[in-house]
Structures are given as structure tokens and as C-alpha cells.
């Protein structure tokens, strides 16, 4: 456990780290920023409940994890690099007492992958400590950082999350209470932010006016009611909490001993939930828009089959995210569903870098083809997206080597042609294969017999909701929050700041 008054720059190396995600080592998938979890539960073991909530949200980030708990005016904090199960154990959790908990599991977008950037971000104010966990990405970080430095704040990290915490502290130190200070700070933030903020007296849940990143509210079945906040409903399910509702775009919920109070801090909310949350990021057992994402992704697959049927012997998905769409494709097309790839579910995240030779065949670390199933067969492989195409090409090569006679690739989303600035780690536009090549050219590069994406209109039909309520800028370039030119030129601008 790290006593909060001992967190100093001396604990962390001072260096730039702008090569942390070099192109050669980056996955060929969009990566989510993080998962957040918060709980107000007097009488409960909030550290353990937060641990299990983060465990369920591990898919949203695997670089670092952290928990802060409040025991009266005392905050207890532990965070480190690694998976949730690597960062915490029974003895550490016992050192995190209190009735309020805030947790975070991180994939870095703004701010490099180092311990100093792990969350929650904890800062001191005149009312006591606050602990902030953030999912999303601000687009006005340069301006906000300059304002905070001019106000003599000593920024310890390169994250926009710490900037939000200090913006709240600045307002609180000027005389605002927790809620007023939070609202003043939220108005200074532009971009995507779903926040869980712990204080000595309560916990806040906040979404930006567009609600780009998800945040849900649950209750533990006790009296008085205990409240839980999580990025997805799977974070509620694991601890037996019941889903109450979503935090609305532009809303802050303030949970204290008086219960849950709701305030709409933005007068002009315009819902724009990231469509990729539904297509890929969120766990298939999570609920969004009154259905499981497993059901939604099956529907995408059925629509994909209607648009791009091809005669084949077997259809299967890239584990795990492509499986529901592959099942839907099979249902609509009549092509038999099977398993052509087996995923090693115990690989996890390794920090041991393979040799170049190993890296070239590294797809087999996680996915291995079933040769007897594939030999001589015409196969359809379904995936949710293609970003750079490097992994897809290796996968196709592996299927050919396993004896597949034909390989047809189907993608259950439209082509990704624009980078995300709201908390998803995608490459710059010139590295996105669909931004520079036609579908036919991509098919040639991947060496597939045919390639087809789900059409834009097909995705809208399958989604069923008012599609104006979703952010789909990665497909269209229509960004709901304006992106400053300086940010467009350098997605990793804060990576180059020496802390």
C-alpha cells in the first residue's frame, strides 16, 4: 500500500516514454482505455467488492490496476502495473479499509504506460482527498494542462485524468463544495469522460454531455441501499448488484449517506455512445439498450450474411469477439457453424518480448487452427474489425497452412477509416488499412479469396436504435466533439512531456 503523502516524483523514473507502443508491437485491434468502478457500501468489504468489479472489467485494460478506499477522512491507496490479480492479493486488500471504494483498470491512451500514470489519481484539497478514475480521453489537454501549471499545480503524471482531479481541487480550494467543485471542473473538460470520484463523504459518477463512454448504476440488495458504479453491467453482476440504470449523458450522480442524488450539469446533452462499445469493447454478457451485447452481435452477423453470403463448408469466428457474429452469420446463411481456431485462454498479457522469428508466428501464442477441421474446407472467418491488417494476414496464412481450401473473411462492422480521440487507442489515419486501400486491395493484402465488411446501412438496421445517439466517427470521420488541429497532428502529444 502507498501512503498518499509518500507519492512523490522520487518513486518514479523521470524519462520520456514515447516509444512504449511501437508500431511493431501493437495489437491489430482497437484497444479500450480503461474500466472504472465505484462503491458506497457502509458495513461491506468495499476493497474486495471493488477488486471483483475490476476483475470483471479486466478486458477494458490490462496495463495497470488500482484501488482507493476511504475510511472517514483517511484515504488508502494501492496501484501498480499488471493485471488485477497480479496487483492485489488478500493481504493488500486487508490494508484497504473503508466504506467507499474507487477502482480502475487501465489501457493507456493519453499518458504512457508507467506506474506513475496508474489510477485512481489521488489529490489533496481543503476538504480532504479525492480519488478519481477516468475512462475516456479529453481533447483539450494542452489548454487544461497550461491552465493548471499557471495555477501552480505540480502535475505528477502525463494523464488527462490527473488534470481533471486537479481542476476539481482548484474549485474546491476556492470555496466550492464537492459537488459544485466537480461541476465547475467538468465544464472545463472537452472530450470523452466517464468518471468515478471518491471523497471522504461520498462518491460521484459522471458522464460527459455526449455519454461517449458507458457508466451504469447498480444497487446491492441491502438496507440501507448500497450503490455501485461500473463501466459495464458485468461489473455489477459479479458482486450480485442489480442494475438500476445508466448514468445519463451530462449527468452527475452524488452518492452519500443521504442516498443517490442526480444533477444534470450539462444543459444540452447529446447522446453519442461509442458504437464500438457495442460491436467489440464491452463484454458480450453486458447489457446495453435493454439487451445483451451477445444478442446484438449475433444480429450483426445475421445482417452480414444477408449482405455477403458465400458458399462454404464452415463458418467460425475469431475468438472471442467474433464468435457471436459468426453464429448469427451461420443462422442466416445456413452454413454450418464450427470452431476452426482454439484460443489459449491462459496466455494473458506477457511482458517477455518474443524474438523476431517468434513474433512472426506469434499469432499461435493465442490462436491455433484445428487442422483436421480445416483441411480441404472452404471456410468463412468472421471478425469484428480490421485496423492495420497485420494480425488478419497472419491468421489467414495460418488457416492456409492448416489446409483450408478457400478462406473468405467477413467483418461485422464497416471499415475503420478514422482514428479515435475519445479513449480508444487506434493508429493514426495513415496506418489504418481501410483509410488507404479499397476493399479489393485489402483482400489482396490479406490474401483471402473474398473479403466483405458490414455496410453502414446494415449496421444501422441491425442496431435498431436511433443511430444519431451513437458516435461512429471511426467509420465516418464525423466527430461529435471538435478535435483541435494540434491533437489531430499528434495523438500522443502528452507522451512527449517529461514528468
What does this structure look like?
The protein is built from 19 helices and 25 strands. The chain has 499 residues and is α+β, with helices and mostly antiparallel strands. The chain folds into 2 domains: 4-272, Glutamine Phosphoribosylpyrophosphate, subunit 1, domain 1 (4-Layer Sandwich), CATH 3.60.20; 292-343 and 356-464, Rossmann fold (3-Layer(aba) Sandwich), CATH 3.40.50.2020. It has a 7-stranded antiparallel beta sheet. A 6-stranded antiparallel beta sheet has the order 6-7-8-9-13-14. A 4-stranded parallel beta sheet has the order 18-21-22-24, sandwiched between helices. A hairpin with a 2-residue loop joins strand 16 and strand 17 (291-292). Helix 4 (141-150) crosses helix 5 (160-173), helix 5 crosses helix 6 (178-186) and helix 9 (293-308) packs across helix 10 (323-333). The chain is globular and about 70 Å long.
Please specify the SSE layout and strand pairing.
Elements: E1 31-32, E2 34-40, H1 46-56, E3 64-71, E4 74-81, H2 84-87, H3 90-94, E5 100-106, E6 121-125, E7 128-138, H4 141-150, H5 160-173, H6 178-186, E8 191-198, E9 203-207, E10 216-220, E11 226-230, H7 234-237, E12 242-246, E13 251-256, E14 259-264, E15 273-274, H8 275-281, E16 287-288, E17 291-292, H9 293-308, E18 314-317, H10 323-333, E19 341-343, H11 356-360, H12 363-366, E20 367-369, H13 371-374, E21 378-383, H14 390-401, E22 406-411, E23 424-425, H15 433-436, H16 439-446, E24 450-453, H17 456-463, E25 470-471, H18 473-476, H19 485-489
Parallel strand pairs: 15-25, 18-21, 21-22, 22-24
Antiparallel strand pairs: 1-23, 2-5, 2-11, 3-4, 3-5, 6-7, 7-8, 8-9, 9-13, 10-11, 10-12, 13-14, 16-17, 19-20
Helix pairs in contact: 4-5, 5-6, 9-10, 9-17
Amino acid at each position: 500500500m502507498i501512503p498518499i503523502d509518500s507519492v512523490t516524483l522520487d518513486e518514479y523514473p523521470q524519462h520520456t516514454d514515447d516509444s512504449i507502443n511501437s508500431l511493431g508491437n501493437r495489437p491489430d485491434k482497437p484497444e479500450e482505455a480503461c474500466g472504472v468502478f465505484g462503491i458506497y457500501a457502509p458495513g461491506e468489504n468495499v476493497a474486495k467488492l471493488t477488486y471483483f468489479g475490476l476483475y470483471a472489467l479486466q478486458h477494458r485494460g490490462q496495463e495497470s490496476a488500482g484501488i482507493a478506499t476511504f475510511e472517514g477522512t483517511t484515504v488508502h491507496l494501492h496501484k501498480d502495473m499488471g493485471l488485477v490479480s497480479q496487483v492485489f492479493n488478500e493481504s493488500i486488500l486487508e490494508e484497504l479499509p473503508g466504506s467507499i471504494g474507487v477502482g480502475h483498470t487501465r489501457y493507456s491512451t493519453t499518458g504512457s504506460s508507467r506506474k506513475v500514470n496508474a489510477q485512481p489519481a489521488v489529490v489533496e484539497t481543503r476538504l480532504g482527498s479525492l480519488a478519481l478514475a477516468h475512462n475516456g480521453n479529453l481533447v483539450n489537454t494542452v489548454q487544461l494542462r497550461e491552465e493548471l501549471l499557471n495555477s501552480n499545480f505540480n502535475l505528477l503524471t502525463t494523464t488527462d485524468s490527473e488534470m481533471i482531479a486537479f481542476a476539481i481541487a482548484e474549485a474546491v480550494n476556492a470555496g466550492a463544495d464537492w459537488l459544485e467543485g466537480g461541476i465547475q471542473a467538468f465544464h472545463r473538460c472537452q472530450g470523452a469522460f466517464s468518471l468515478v470520484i471518491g471523497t471522504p463523504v461520498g462518491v460521484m459518477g459522471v458522464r460527459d454531455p455526449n455519454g461517449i463512454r458507458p457508466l451504469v448504476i447498480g444497487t446491492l440488495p441491502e438496507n440501507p441501499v448500497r450503490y455501485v458504479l461500473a463501466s459495464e453491467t458485468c461489473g455489477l453482476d459479479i458482486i450480485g448488484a442489480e442494475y438500476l440504470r445508466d448514468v445519463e449523458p451530462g449527468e452527475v450522480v452524488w452518492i452519500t449517506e443521504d442516498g443517490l442524488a442526480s444533477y444534470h450539469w450539462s444543459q444540452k446533452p447529446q447522446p453519442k455512445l461509442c458504437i464500438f462499445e457495442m460491436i467489440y469493447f464491452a463484454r458480450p454478457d453486458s447489457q446495453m439498450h435493454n439487451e445483451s451485447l451477445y444478442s446484438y452481435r449475433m444480429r450483426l452477423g445475421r445482417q452480414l450474411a444477408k449482405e455477403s453470403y458465400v458458399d462454404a463448408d464452415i463458418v467460425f469466428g475469431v475468438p472471442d469477439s467474433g464468435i457471436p457474429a459468426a453464429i448469427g452469420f451461420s443462422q442466416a446463411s445456413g452454413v454450418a457453424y464450427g470452431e476452426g481456431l482454439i484460443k489459449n485462454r491462459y496466455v494473458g498479457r506477457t511482458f517477455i518480448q518474443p524474438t523476431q522469428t517468434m513474433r512472426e508466428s506469434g499469432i499461435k501464442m493465442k490462436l491455433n487452427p484445428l487442422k483436421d477441421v480445416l483441411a480441404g474446407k472452404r471456410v468463412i472467418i468472421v471478425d469484428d474489425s480490421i485496423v492495420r491488417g497485420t494480425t488478419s494476414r497472419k491468421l489467414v496464412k495460418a488457416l492456409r497452412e492448416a489446409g483450408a481450401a478457400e478462406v473468405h473473411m467477413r467483418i461485422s462492422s464497416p471499415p475503420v477509416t478514422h482514428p479515435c480521440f475519445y479513449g480508444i487507442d487506434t493508429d493514426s489515419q495513415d496506418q489504418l488499412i481501410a483509410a488507404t486501400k479499397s476493399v479489393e486491395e485489402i483482400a489482396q493484402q490479406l490474401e483471402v479469396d473474398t473479403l466483405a465488411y458490414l455496410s453502414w446501412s446494415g449496421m444501422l438496421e441491425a442496431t435498431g436504435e436511433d443511430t444519431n445517439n451513437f458516435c461512429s466517427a471511426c467509420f465516418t470521420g464525423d466527430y461529435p466533439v471538435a478535435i483541435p488541429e494540434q491533437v489531430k497532428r499528434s495523438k500522443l502529444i502528452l507522451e512527449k512531456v517529461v514528468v
